[in-house]
């Protein structure tokens, strides 16, 4: 099974205009350390939101896009969720789904663990992650002490699929 990793506000918002609405260094560090040396699956727009639209270093980057002629140096391009799953399984390491909204929604059923950084604030957003608190197939199994970054309070949580 795969895992997913996401940061979301109190309404499960994850972005606006293809950008994250916050910058929390400890969350970025957690993301880097958790996914490094592993496989990450993302949509094209998520890749394009990275600095210079470049794949993440020290990871296998699998990018799902409908654009048939899409190419990015250092990324594995696929054209469907099924193709992404099959390709990811051919690599060593854990597999992490890293966004965006449509990729999270399409791949949630393949995941059994979700690392969710929950930010205690409601942002103006246009992109959302499915609300796992309202999904009876998921249960929060871990929550950190309250963390703060300037005036934002947040928690590192782990959700696991209950079968």
Describe what you observe in this structure.
With 163 residues, this protein is an alpha/beta fold. It has one domain (2-161): Dihydrofolate Reductase, subunit A (3-Layer(aba) Sandwich), CATH 3.40.430.10. It has 4 helices and 11 strands. The protein has helices spanning 25-35, 44-48, 81-88, 101-107; strands spanning 2-9, 13-15, 39-43, 60-64, 75-78, 95-97, 111-119, 127-128, 138-143, 147-149, 152-161.
| Class of secondary structure makeup | alpha/beta
Quickly count the domains. Answer: 1
How much of the sequence lies in strands comes to 35-45%
**Main sheet specs:** 9 strands, mixed
Annotated CATH homologous superfamily: Dihydrofolate Reductase, subunit A
Provide the gyration radius in Å. 15 Å
| Separation, N- and C-terminal Cα atoms | 13 Å
Overall strand count: 11
Please state the second-level CATH architecture: 3-Layer(aba) Sandwich
Please write the string of helix (H) and strand (E) elements. Answer: EEHEHEEHEHEEEEE
* Uncertain stretches: none
Report the principal-axis shape: globular
CATH class: Alpha Beta
- Quaternary status: single chain
């Amino acid at each position: 099974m795969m895992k997913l990793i996401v940061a979301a506000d109190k309404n499960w918002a994850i972005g606006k205009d293809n950008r994250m609405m916050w910058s929390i260094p400890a969350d970025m560090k957690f993301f880097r350390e958790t996914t490094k040396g592993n496989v990450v699956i993302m949509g094209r727009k998520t890749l394009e939101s990275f600095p210079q639209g470049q794949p993440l270093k020290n990871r296998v980057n699998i990018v799902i896009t409908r654009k048939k002629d899409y190419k990015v140096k250092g990324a594995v391009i696929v054209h469907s969720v099924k193709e992404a799953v099959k390709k990811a399984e051919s690599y060593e390491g854990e597999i992490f789904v890293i966004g965006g909204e449509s990729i999270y929604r399409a791949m949630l059923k393949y995941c059994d663990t979700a690392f969710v950084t929950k930010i205690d604030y409601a942002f103006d957003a246009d992109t959302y992650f499915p609300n796992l608190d309202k999904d009876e197939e998921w249960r929060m199994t871990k929550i950190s002490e309250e963390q703060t970054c300037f005036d934002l309070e947040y928690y590192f949580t782990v959700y696991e699929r209950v079968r």
